[in-house]
Design brief:
The longest helix is centred in the N-terminal third of the chain and has 34 residues, at 2-35. This protein is mainly alpha-helical. It has helices at 2-35, 46-62, 65-90, 104-117, 130-138, 165-185, 190-197, 214-247, 250-255, 260-293, 303-328, 334-358, 366-371, 378-387, 393-421, 431-438, 445-448, and strands spanning 94-100, 121-126, 144-147, 151-153. The protein has 17 helices and four strands. Strands 2-1-3-4 form a four-stranded mixed β-sheet, with helices on both faces.
Amino acid sequence: MKLRWLLVVLLAGLLSVVRRLSRRARAQRSARTRRAEPGDRRRPDRTSVICLIARREIRERVRSRALLVTSALILLVVAAAIIIPAHNRGRTTSITVGVVGVAPASLAGTVQRAAQSVGTTAHVSSEPSLAAAERALQHKSLDLAVIDDQRLEMLAAPGPTDTSSLAQFARSLAAQLGIARAMAQAGLNNQQISTLYGYRALPIASTGHGPSPSPRNATSILGIIVTFVMLQQYMGWILMGVMEEKTSRVIEVLLSSVRPLQLISGKVLGIGAVTLAQAGAIIAVALLVGELTGSSVLHGASPAIMASSVLWLALGYFFYSWVFAAAGAMVERQDQAQAVAFPLSLPIIFGYVYALVQTSATSISLLTKVLAYLPPTAPFLMPALVGRHAVSWWEFLLGVVVDLASTVALARLAAKVYERAILRTGTRVRWRDVWKERGTGEHPKAPVTKAL
C-alpha cells in the first residue's frame, strides 16, 4: 500500500513540475511580448528556450509517419498479448479416452478427476479390442487409450518438457489410475475410497517475498517488454536526430541562437514527452482491451505495477537519452551511428533479458537486487521486483533517488561531450579527442568548425 501511494506521489510530482515549467514559460513569453520594443535584442531566458525546442521536437515526432506506424504496431502487439490468452482460456478442448477390457463406467470418475486437475474435459468411449484402439489412435479419433486397466497408450508418449494439455492429462490420469489400483490392492472399501478422493488441499500462504501470482507476473512481463521496445526506439531517434542535424549543418544555425545545453535539453524533454504520451496510450488500450475481453493478463494486477513500469520507463529514458545524444554528436554517417549504438544498447539488452528470467525464477538472487539499483538495468529489474512484491517502499524510493542522481551527473557530462563534439565535421570524433580538449580550456567553436 505504501509503495502504491509513493508511486502516485512521484508521478503527480513529475506532472506538476512539467505543468509549472510550461506555465512559467508562457507567462515569461507573454511578459516579454508586452514589454518588447523594436530595438530590443535581449536573449530569451533559458527555460523558455528549452520549452521552445521541446515543442519543436514534439511537433516533428508527432508528424512523423514512423511514430504512427510504430505506435500502431505496439498497440496491436499489446492487444494481441491480452486477447490471445483470453481466447485460449475460453476454449475447452475435449480429450477422448478409449477403454479396452474395462467397463467405461468404472473409469469415468477417475478420468473426470484427471481432466479437472488440468482444466480440461474428457470423454470416455469403449473400444472392442487393442487393435481397434491403436487404429483409432493412428486416425486421431482417440487421444489416449487405457488398456486392461494396466497401461496407457498414446500416439506419442509425452516427454518430460511437454506441457501441453494432453500431456498433463495423461500424467494426471496415470497417477489417478495408479492410486486407484493401490487402494484396491490395500483392500479399502468404497466408503474409504470416497473419503480419500474427497480430500481438500491445504491452503498455501505467501510471506510477501516469494514469486507473485501469475496475473501480476504477466503484467510485469508486459511492462518490461514495452519498456525495452520503447527505449530502443527512442534512443535510436535521438542518436539519428542529432547526427542528421550535425551533417545537414542545421546545428550551426541553431547554435547561433541557443546554447548547446539548451538545445540538447529541449530535444531530450520533447522526445521524452512523446515517450510518456505513447506509454499512456498503451496502458489505456491495454486496460480497455482487458476489460472488454475479460482477460486474466491484467486481472488482479496491482496499479502499482503499471505505475512502476511507467515511472521506470521515464527514468530509463532520461538516463539513456543523454548518452545517445552525446554519441550522436560524435558521428557523421549511419554506419558510424550503428557501430556506436550497439555497445550503448548492450546494458538495455542485458537488463531486458535478465529481468524476463527473474520474473519466473524461484528465488531472488543478490545480483538481481544489486542490478535493480544500477541505473542502466534498474528500468527493467525494479519493475520485476515490484511485480513479485520483493521490494519495500523505501527500497523503491532509494532506487529512484540513485537513478535521478546518476542521471543528473550523466547529463552534465553528456552536455559537455555534446558541446565539444557537435561542431566537429569531416570525421568521427573519438572519446580521447573529447577528453583531451576538455583539459585545454579552449572554446569548442574555435578549433572545431570545418572550413566551408
